[in-house]
Every structure is written in structure tokens, then in C-alpha cells.
Amino acid sequence: MNRQLRTFDRLLHGAALVTLCAFAASASAAEPAKAAKPAATSAAKKAAPPAKPVETAPSEANAEQIDAAERVYYGIYDCEFNQTVDIEKHPKHAAYVNVKTGKSAWLMKPVLSSTGAIRLEDTKGETLMVQISSKSMLLNVKTARRIVDDCISPRQRELIAAAKAAKEAEAAKAAEPATKAPVDAAAAAAAPAASGHSVPAASSSVAANGAATDPASAPK
What we know:
Blueprint: H1 2-47, H2 63-70, E1 75-78, E2 84-89, E3 97-101, E4 104-112, E5 118-122, E6 127-131, E7 136-140, E8 145-151, H3 154-195, H4 199-212
Antiparallel strand pairs: 1-2, 2-3, 3-4, 4-5, 5-6, 6-7, 7-8
């Protein structure tokens, strides 16, 4: 009986050892597979190129937009606080403009408003550039704040100088009749004195001649 128990213990111990060895082998085989997965994932991340934002092409310009684009004042604008705004034609999209200030840039669509002002509308709806004859300003549409104000292009500077010169010429022309009127009145007063006749004498002479030729006063 004791011998049978000893034999059974040996068999049980051997089975346990076999089970433990099999479990250890399976665990060691699984660990490299798990460790290999992060390495493969990191390698895939390094190999994949960074995604670039997709630029949506703007709609084709119509006749009104082309007309408005021809009225835009292109070039570098001098703005308040020593800031500048650069407006140039877009190299790829006809009748669209690029507006740049500092490190920011926008693709904008020219629109002619009913008042004659040119509106440069951001294709993404974030900003707006308003252009009139005397100045321009750049606005943030979402926050309703001015980004840059008092911007003047070289063409606007020319228009301002021309308007000032025209106003001065008109004021000088309006002042001319007022300076001539006193001279003409003095000349009219001096004319009878220069001829040697006085107005009262002429009036009495006319009265006398009238009395001589009046039938009622003639002797019968």
C-alpha cells in the first residue's frame, strides 16, 4: 500500500512539472509577440507622412467678381501703428486676391457693394477687407473687431491728394467774385466825376427840358 502511494505521488509530481514547463514555454512564446506589436506600431507611425490639410478650390469667378477685382487697389498698404497689409492677385485663381498682414494670410473674393466700396470677403468667412477711396480696414467677422485700421495704398494716397487739390481750386474760384465786387463799385462811382458831370445836374436839366416841351405849360 505504501509502495502504491509513493508511485502515485511520483506520477502526480511529474505531471505537475510537465504542466508548469508547458505553461512557462507558452508564456515565454507569447511575450515576444506582445513586445513586437508596439515596435511595429511605432515604426508605422514614423513611416507614415503627416497629413496635409486639403485646400478647397474656390468657385469660378463671374463677370461681377471680375469687375470688382479690377477695382481693387493692389500693393502694400500703410496702416496704423506701423502695420502693413499686402494685397496681390492670386496666382492660380482668377479674380481672387491674397491678403497678408503679419504672419496671417487669407484668400479673398472681391465684391462690389451698392455704395461703390469694394469688399474683399474671406472664402472661409473669418475676415473682411473693406476698401473705399480714402482708406481701408481689415475686420474679423466672427469677433466683430478690427484687425488693422487706417490702411492707405499708394493709389488711395493719389486720390486723397487729387481731392484736396480740387477742393482748394474750387474754394479759390468761389472767392473770386467777392474780391472783384468792391473794385467794380468804386469804378462806377468814379466814372461821373471823371467826365465832369454830376448826376443831380443832369436831372435838373432833364426836368427843365421837360417843362419847356410840355404843351400844358406852353404860352397860348
